């Protein structure tokens, strides 16, 4: 495997994505928590960083266990760090170098740069530059303004590059990473979904043995794939719980429960709609609604988990970005639960945790799910928030409002599917606004609700743009909603991007 030491660059996860795309396994670890040396480690990549080696207290871990022992590739800050620590000089660039540049010198005999063409476009993003390299280094690539665009340490497999091969604007970045990972580190390209499933199922069998595992299904991709993997390992000893909180899409609970049963899962559907509606009654504040829903969910799940005698494990669909987030250079995020009051936790939270997807990125989870034969309708589903329609009904939530919104949402989503637009949109849904407006239907004046439709394109939900859905499509959806859903006489389309707006309205 490859170890990626994270110095806090926004691109660190991208490096890992690119290495995984080469079917090579890699792990990201913060530079200040380097894991113990393991025999399967074949090479190390040092990421970029928002820091500068010219600052006081710059990140400077001890790399001696690696340097000269294993191939090492420093990217941007990583390259500057090794150059400076080796006796070279790093200075502030006179201009901040940001954007596309072209290589004008490439040592094509160098193994890192094999098949990289002269004139190759690379992506630069740095404020410092390497002015002098140490005597035992050699320059292997340059651009017009950056002489040390890439270097090699003469008697070691240690390399530094000033540009970012992981960003697609570096058009031959993937070739460079392949040269490093496959040819220089000699990693075999056998990290595939099949191989992942085989080793994970074997590990789970060993880890869990004949114990019982409880797992909460949500209908989403991650919990479904996690359940199928654990199911392959331990079969009926996996007890799945799928809670109907009354805030799901129309027909979703029955439909998804059915798919789960078809997949052979031992799953119990729990109708807790009334408990959720009761807890939500009269609450209008978004955070209060979220808290109420979270609390009821924990109560229901705790109660159900007690019905499984002797359960020892809690299965979870945690994926790699969640793990990286919680151990990142910037420190654990504030949302990670503190374990100070273990006594006060619900009983199911005292179970040992098993997280079979914790090394996978989202698209890898989908690939694994596909290989496991999971229903494509589950794998390709848009993200849906845990509090469900409750945060799409602005103001207080009642079963009647949920029913109206379910119909509106159903027409919108069904139309997206029928017109082949569903997969082009990252997430879509409808909001029920606490506003009534005047309309006319036949000879009568109406005074009814307004709904807003929202569809966005995004990579990860952190930023998003509104989807430019065709006008004809929006016109048809609007007509169908107003004609079919009693109580709604006006439809608007949300054309805000995130930031400054958010995807949800609450
Ligand atoms: P925002 O509205 O913050 O949403 O742009 C970003 C993504 O997060 C989802 N979301 C939630 N998911 N519980 C969840 O499980 C929540 O309380 C919640 N709020 C927002 C939202 O659907 C979008 O995918």
CATH class of the largest domain: Alpha Beta
N-end to C-end Cα span = 42 Å
Structural domain count: 3
CATH superfamily of the largest domain: HUPs
Q: What gross morphology would you assign?
A: globular
Widest sheet: strand ordering = 2-1-3-4-9-8-7-5-6
How many helices does DSSP assign? 13
In angstroms, what is the radius of gyration?
27 Å
The portion of residues forming beta strands comes to 25-35%
User: What summary fits the major beta sheet?
Assistant: 9 strands, mixed
Question: Which stretches are low in confidence, meaning pLDDT under 50 for 5 or more residues running?
Answer: 332-342
Roughly what percent helix? 25-40%
Residue-averaged pLDDT, rounded?
93
What class, by secondary structure content? alpha/beta
Ligand set:
xanthosine-5'-monophosphate
CATH fold topology of the largest domain: Rossmann fold
- Could you say what the CATH architecture of the largest domain is? 3-Layer(aba) Sandwich
Question: Strand tally, please?
Answer: 18
Oligomeric state of this protein: single chain
